[in-house]
């Protein structure tokens, strides 16, 4: 069991160096990321993966889902619109990921608020996700410490979810990523707080969901260091978003600029602009 006394800190330069290395690996190896995700965000998710250098595949029907997971480099399971057929595909894909040692990310959208997805998310924990990414209310609910937020919006702050994140780390072995104005990334022993990003991410469809897919891509190339890989995905995503916001006039132009920044972002840019507290 982790405790505040046993937690360690990583020097920011260590995180930034790992981020630069993993970004180059994503671009040079183009990991294949299977996205079993919600119907609202497929376009945004696929475009974000393509922009950063990965290859997306939205394979989310039963039988094929498990077949594809066996060949994929990484997997995202997002519970945004879990209709009956997709729920079957989700369980198949998660089971296949465990069988084939495919790194995978669980995004427990609106868990705690709605019964079907809450039960499904808790069942999925048995398949040992590599990382779990959600807003504070989702992480608190998944840890059994609350009833969720307001739909997909969080009713809690990141600091309020820290204990729940550590609890989930201990229970599942997963890296926990809690999204907010400051993003918490933890393995239960080491906590990272990353403070880049922009409120415009909350004004476009898929602004959070696509980060789950990005995390799966970075885990695919950084499976030996999942804490670093999860932090690297978050830094690339949020620094790119922050840069895009400086030249956007609103949500529409921001989304276009964001894709451009994901494609263009360089390690030296991340080193100069990353905020690790």
For this structure, the quaternary state is: single chain
Name the poorly predicted regions: 1-6
- Structural class, please? alpha/beta
Tally of discrete structural domains: 1
CATH topology grouping: UDP-N-acetylmuramoyl-L-alanine:D-glutamate ligase
Residue fraction in strands: 5-15%
Figure out the total of helices. 11
Index terms:
8-stranded mixed β-sheet, disordered N terminus, alpha/beta, 277 residues, 48% helix
Q: How would you describe the overall organization of this protein?
A:
- This protein has 277 residues and is of the alpha/beta class.
- 48% of the residues lie in helices and 12% in strands.
- Strands 2-1-3-4-5-6-7-8 form an 8-stranded mixed sheet, sandwiched between helices.
- Helix 1 crosses helix 9 (226-245).
- The two termini are 24 Å apart.
Element layout with pairings:
Elements: H1 12-29, E1 32-36, H2 42-52, E2 55-57, H3 64-69, E3 74-78, H4 84-100, E4 104-107, H5 115-124, E5 131-134, H6 136-142, H7 162-172, E6 175-178, E7 183-186, E8 191-194, H8 209-221, H9 226-245, H10 251-264, H11 267-273
Helix pairs in contact: 1-8, 1-9, 1-11, 2-8, 2-10, 6-7, 8-9, 9-10
């Amino acid at each position: 069991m982790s405790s505040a006394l046993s937690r360690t800190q990583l020097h920011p330069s260590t995180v930034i160096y790992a981020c630069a290395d993993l970004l180059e690996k994503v671009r040079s190896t183009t990991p294949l990321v299977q996205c079993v995700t919600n119907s609202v965000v497929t376009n945004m998710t696929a475009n974000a993966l393509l922009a950063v250098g990965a290859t997306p595949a939205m394979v989310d029907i039963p039988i094929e889902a498990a077949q594809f997971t066996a060949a994929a480099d990484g997997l995202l399971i997002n519970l945004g619109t879990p209709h009956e057929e997709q729920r079957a595909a989700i369980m198949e894909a998660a089971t296949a990921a465990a069988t084939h040692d495919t790194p995978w990310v669980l995004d427990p959208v609106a868990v705690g608020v709605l019964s079907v997805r809450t039960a499904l998310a808790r069942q999925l924990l048995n398949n040992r996700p590599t990382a779990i990414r959600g807003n504070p209310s989702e992480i608190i609910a998944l840890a059994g410490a609350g009833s969720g937020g307001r739909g997909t919006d969080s009713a809690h702050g990141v600091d309020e979810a820290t204990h729940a994140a550590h609890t989930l780390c201990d229970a599942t072995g997963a890296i926990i990523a809690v999204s907010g104005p400051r993003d918490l990334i933890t393995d239960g022993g080491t906590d990272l707080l990353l403070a880049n990003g922009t409120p415009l991410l909350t004004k476009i469809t898929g602004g959070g969901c696509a980060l789950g897919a990005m995390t799966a891509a970075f885990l695919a190339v950084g499976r030996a260091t999942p804490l670093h890989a999860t932090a690297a995905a978050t830094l690339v995503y949020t620094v790119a978003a922050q840069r895009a916001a400086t030249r956007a006039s609103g949500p529409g132009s921001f989304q276009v600029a964001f894709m451009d920044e994901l494609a263009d972002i360089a390690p030296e840019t991340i080193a100069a602009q990353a905020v690790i507290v």
